[in-house]
Amino acid sequence: MRVLAAMSGGVDSAVAAARLRDAGHDVTGVHLALSAKPATMREGARGCCSVEDSRDARRCADVLDIPFYVWDLAARFREDVVEPFVAEYAAGRTPNPCLRCNEKIKFSAVLERARALGFDAVGTGHYARLSGSATGPTRPVLRRAADPDKDQSYVLGVLRPDQLDGALFPLGDTPKAEVRAEAAARGLVVAEKPDSHDICFIPSGDTRGFLAERIDEAPGEMVDPSGAVVGHHRGVHDFTVGQRHGLGIRRPAPDGRPRYVLGLEPVSRTVRVGPVEDLDVTTLSGADPVWLVDPPSGPLDCVVQVRAHGGTAGATVRVTADGVDVALAEPLRGVAPGQAAVFYRPDGGGDVVLGSATIAATA
Description:
The protein is of the alpha/beta class. It is built from eight helices and 17 strands. The strands form four sheets. The protein has a six-stranded antiparallel β-barrel. The protein has a five-stranded parallel beta sheet with strand order 3-2-1-4-7, sandwiched between helices. A four-stranded mixed beta sheet has the order 9-8-11-10, with no helix packed on it. Helix 1 runs parallel beside helix 2 and helix 1 packs across helix 7. The N and C termini lie far apart (48 Å).
């Protein structure tokens, strides 16, 4: 096949491109320029998409002897990822920009352009397993990666079947340590390059400062479960459900225990705080469901994951007129509206993705 390999400048995407080439595909590398004003250098593991990353991607493409291009998608990235990220925080929700980047950029904008240029599929360095066919007649099956510590099936769980049908994930069966060793053996300069951990468009890691520059202050009260006002804040966008540190509450709780953010109410400008056990939720509702299987006509038993790392529980999902209702077999703590709930098949190790929805509310 003709495959477009998305090359971020990191070790994973470089090895993925190499494996696609070795598999006999006609591979072209592309680096996505997602920032209108990219930093010259990365700060260790912070951020990505710097000028340094673009140069590293090009150097790896040279070693692999494949064509290489840079695509400027900064405007699309700002419109589809950054601006919704800010809007979600302003509305008291906690978005996951990596999910939206996969959905809107890598497997929408990039895949659409790749197909228009005659490519059959887009290959990336994501850690997930995909069976079926990139262009074949069978429905794609998305599974967890063999390396549980690197599994990225959660952030891919929002993709539609037609998007997965045009995807290739060559690293899904390989532990990260082996990927780095392979990169070194191939002479790729990124073999020991640190992984990116923070939000790529906030390389400083200061999410609160980033939002403060884009959202006007809307001061309000911090209220405990009894209704007592225990503090004040500059805006609900400064907080996320489950947050403990940085609350700015000078008066300790009567029992001396830490307080956590329990909920955000942007209309009344209220931040609800309380003890950790009040973070437990047993039900949640989800909007905009995406199914990789036929939508269930009745109750669906599954395993649900509500965060990129951890936050899993047995659950029963029911399709509703507005989305889905999810009843948890055991409580989950600190589930934030705006994040994704990804549903996995409960048998066979619970590693097959069934579908997903955006968490709208919890109880």
